[in-house]
Amino acid sequence: MGTHQPQASLFAYRVDREQRVRPDHPLRRVAAVVDFSFVREQVAPCYGYNGHVSVDPVVILKLMFLLFYDDVPSERELLSRLGERLDYLWFLGYGLDDPIPDHSVLSKARHRWGREVFERLFVQTVQKCVAAGLVDGHKIHLDSSLVDANASKNSVLKSAPALIDALKAAYGAQEQKLTEPLAAESVNAGPVSTTDPDATVVRSSSGGPRLRYKHHRAVDNAHGVITAVRTTTGRVDEAQQLPSLIEQHTHNTAKAVDTAVADSKYGTVENYRHCQQLGITTHMADLQTKQAGTGRRAAIFPDTGFVYAAVTDTYRCPGGQTLHRHHWNAARRVWQYRTRAGLCAGCALRAQCTRAKDGRSLQRHEDHQLVQQARMQANSAVAKRDRRRRQHLMEGSFADAANNHGFKRARWRRLWRQEIQDWLIAAIQNVRILMAHPLRPVHTTAQAVRALVVLPSAGRCGFRIDERCLWAYEVAAVTRFGVN
Ligand code: SF4
Asked: Burial letters for 303-340: b for 16+ Cβ neighbours within 10 Å, e otherwise?
């Protein structure tokens, strides 16, 4: 029976990190899937030519990746754990005796680099998913989620607008002294938080009013890959983010959207019109249908009870009266229709028709046909089935981010930092989808060499091989044989 001597060796010459980290360790797959080296070229202009030599930007980016990948509570904690974790050291390319960087290098790097590095990391993961055949690209699901800001409700200041503006200006000036002038412009129009002026007080169904940001995302229908991400302050209406999410999805995946699936918050006339003009089928629940029969519209005739006559451009109401064009609402792009003055006041059906003092009115959009077509698509059986799928796809995507990567709470303050957090978490979720995808096995070194040497020239020597297969070979070659 042996006894282990806990006394440490004076020198450890035979510690091989390659052997100590198991072959199927998730970080090996991450290293194979994600190319972090792009950051060197991208941030090169941010560094001078003399002074101290910085920590390698690749190492810094990998540290920020680890921060969210394992949902480590803080940067201090991450750096204090680093020396104890052989897998982290292997991932970073550090030896046992390499000095561990100070935690402050991470916040300094964020200021120095800006947001673009993290956006590029996210886009890279989307493109890898496309290359691996995990993105359908034609049907997307949209939703948003509130994220608690890193600031207390007690920091909210309510005062005269002039004083709020002065406070925001003073805050920006103070921040510029400490950091580079990134996003000094505030986006918060109402009462302002003195801790995080970009966050806004929003009430959610699950919690009371709090300072929050809003995260918007588009998820692909095939495997739930996140293809577009946008971060705003909490008070922004999610419906207005639909055009930019569709545009971002198309840019990131190089695939045009055929169908957009979302709940009734996105089912506005403007979104219907926008999608129809782009030829996108709208499977977004109709906001008007949802609101019909509720609030002030409860127990009154729906708009469908009025018959339109194209020849005379008038409506006939259930009481047999005619509604004519009354005036143009430029903001909403609609014509308003009304009966002649006084007719509704004396109508026997008035109680069932309207609660407005000056009688019932109807609105008709300038692109009425497009809006009606969108409504038909939104109420179809296929749309309802898509919305059921959206529920578990989107809720699953948000739940995974919240449970595994600390998505529901902002780590840092200001909108641009929250954008960085959202890009990192979305990138990590995509990487995990890539890793969960079964790879084609590589059994021999010869196959690995063939993957790296022969297959890239497949087009020239007559091979037909799809991108997904080539990617699988490359990943397996790097994972198993350390070829890079
Ligand atoms: S209230 Fe006016 S619009 Fe409604 S049924 Fe009577 S006349 Fe027609």
From this structure: eeebeeeeeeebbebebebebeeeeeeeeeebbebbbe
